[in-house]
Specification:
The complex is a heterodimer. Chain A is mainly β. Helix content of chain A is about 0%, strand content about 50%. Chain A contains no helices and eleven strands. In chain A, strands 2, 4, 5, 6, 9, 10 and 11 form a seven-stranded mixed β-sheet that branches. In chain A, strands 1-3-8-7 form a four-stranded antiparallel β-sheet, with no helix packed on it. In chain B, the strands form three sheets. In chain B, strands 2, 5, 6, 10, 11 and 12 form a six-stranded mixed β-sheet that branches. In chain B, strands 3-9-8-7 form a four-stranded antiparallel β-sheet, with no helix packed on it. Chain B is about 0% helix and about 55% strand. The N and C termini of chain B lie far apart (about 40 Å). The chains are: A mainly beta, B mainly beta. At the A-B interface, strand 5, strand 9 and strand 10 of A face strand 5, strand 6 and strand 10 of B.
Chain lengths: ~110, ~120
């Protein structure tokens, strides 16, 4: 089954404790991206990747890191999480950037206390 | 800069009513793509439809229909005979295809509640 798999689904952590949210897709998509969803703000892009070893900032990249060492994986790293990063995070992939629809993971609800 | 406006923050209807979700976009490109996504209460985001800027034909899929009008920069979504299962947040999105940016921008979403 074609899918984007994110883990974990729920995560509660404390300020400053490094964490990684994993994302993997099995559709051989070149384009992958991370979004955060906040009430009243909709979906905002954090980082995206056009291909292996090619990543770039989205609209709200501060406080986040990503890597794309393999085509299928695109982890989101929070080196020193802060409470304002409490949010619902989505990983997405698509055949290309722009024209093709995004396939989303099921989301990760992160709470930073 | 590209922009998507979903002016309706929340809509509440009774089952079997028709409902239209509005989406107005701004872009300077002549080539672009418009999307609708659905986010049910379970939280996942589901792709519904894509339209490119050169195809103004309206589309119907069962109870769902989409009205794309370039003259008014709108891409509205109508649900006919709504059902409780249609309750969700619906997002409209725009992707420009020129200039190398191809950035996807989402509207803030419209929360639809269909009451029995």
């Amino acid at each position: 089954e074609a899918q984007v798999t994110q883990n974990p689904r729920y995560l509660i952590t404390v300020t400053g404790k490094k964490l990684t949210v994993t994302c993997s897709q099995n559709m051989n998509h070149e384009y992958m991206s991370w979004y955060r969803q906040d009430p009243g703000l909709g979906l905002r892009q954090i980082y995206y990747s056009m291909n292996v070893e090619v990543t770039d900032k989205g609209d709200v990249p501060e406080g986040y890191k990503v890597s794309r060492k393999e085509k299928r994986n695109f982890p989101l790293i929070l080196e020193s999480p802060s409470p304002n990063q409490t949010s619902l995070y989505f990983c997405a992939s698509s055949f290309d950037r722009g024209a093709s629809p995004l396939h989303f993971g099921n989301g990760t609800r992160l709470t930073v206390t | 800069a590209q922009k998507v406006t979903q002016a309706q923050t929340e809509i509440s209807v009774v089952e079997k009513e028709d409902v239209t979700l509005d989406c107005v976009y701004e872009t300077r490109d002549t080539t672009y793509y418009l999307f609708w996504y659905k986010q049910p209460p379970s939280g996942e985001l589901v792709f519904l439809i894509r339209r490119n800027s050169f195809d103004e034909q309206n589309e119907i899929s069962g109870r769902y229909s989409w009205n794309f009008q370039k003259s008014t920069s709108s891409f509205n979504f109508t649900i006919t005979a709504s059902q409780v299962v249609d309750s969700a947040v619906y997002f409209c999105a725009l992707s420009e295809a020129e200039g190398g940016s191809e950035k996807l921008v989402f509207g803030k979403g419209t929360k639809l509640t269909v009451n029995p």
